[in-house]
Amino acid sequence: MTVARTLLDNGVAIVTEQVPWLRSATVGIWVPVGSRAETPAESGVAHFIEHMLFKGTPRRRAVEISRAIESVGGTMNACTSREYTYFFAKSMEKDFPLLVDLLTDIYRNSLFDAAELDRERGVILQEILMVDDTPEEYLHDYFNAAYWGGHPLGFPVQGSAESVGRFDRALLTGYFGDRFRRAGIVVTTVGNLRHAVVAEAFERSLSSLPLGEPLVPVSPTAPVRGTFLKRRPFEQVHLCLGAPGVSRRSERIYAMDVLNAILGGSSSSRLFQQVREERGLAYSVGSSLSAYADAGVVDIYAGTGRDTAAEVLSVTGGVVDALQRGGVTDEEVSFGKELIKGNTLLSLESTGYRMSCLAMNEMFLSRLEPPEAILDRVDAVTPEEVRALAAELLARDRFTLAAVGDLPDAALSF
To answer: pTM of whole model > 0.90?
Structure first.
């Protein structure tokens, strides 16, 4: 497997991994603009643009875009996150020219037709309602809004009904022409394709595109600590505890992954065992990480009954305290490392995962290396690093609590 990179004169980076045994080609265009680049009035605009990129160009109607990729048995999709938006396609290797044509056509020539825009607005408003009706997703949007205290990292990626309802064609095309046309765009390809072939194809398609200066995001201020409670008619009380973690650029990100595996990132973790297996207080409980270019969050989630919410918080506090006071064992670190390496090896069987690794390395880490390098970085983590991280990050007074549901009369606290 060979990883290679070409930088076009206009700032587009083309990063490829040639995998000889693959018969497929997976191609993505990554734009380093997500919801954290928005203002409150623009909340959800990047996500709306993502949808509109599939709604027609001068050469293809929306249905013709779908038919073009499906006619060769391929797939095409897109995603918006807080820090980037990407759209990608996958098909057999022989259809690589079609993938280039489709992706560059929708990126360069999307019409943003007003009638299509109004129809898609309805789709996105339904998506927002779906999030509102999904307790765990609603909770995390509520937590982020409280935790980030007005910074765009706390905006919901999909926007709000109010903001989406105000968008018009002028706003979308203006935002797209500015924020989506900046240096820092990354093209990634994974498949049995020579780098020179890929670079030549995208140079023909994208080198003439004028791009502005890279967008520099506004760094977040200190998170808001405290307790935030919202009554909603859910069957359970949904709890989220979050504290500052490490950024995706931190050298400690892999130690953070190991600590998360020990805390609540697996069914063998302390939280899962003590909250669910030993006490039967929750069906869903665990921890996860959100890492951004300049910030990070470790959060703990549990869904439980109204009468057991306080006990779940008490048990969780005990787990956090034990780890923070030096309770991480060498055996747990070894287990966590093997878990992460095993999960990574399984993920590396996915061309989409490999493509994502290439993009993250280019956009945020300035690395040119095969995705397998992750395994060596995890292997290098020591128990001392994990214990030091736990002592620093898991102090109870660093956590913010958000809860939604039919909350108990007594105030919840952590």
So the answer is: yes
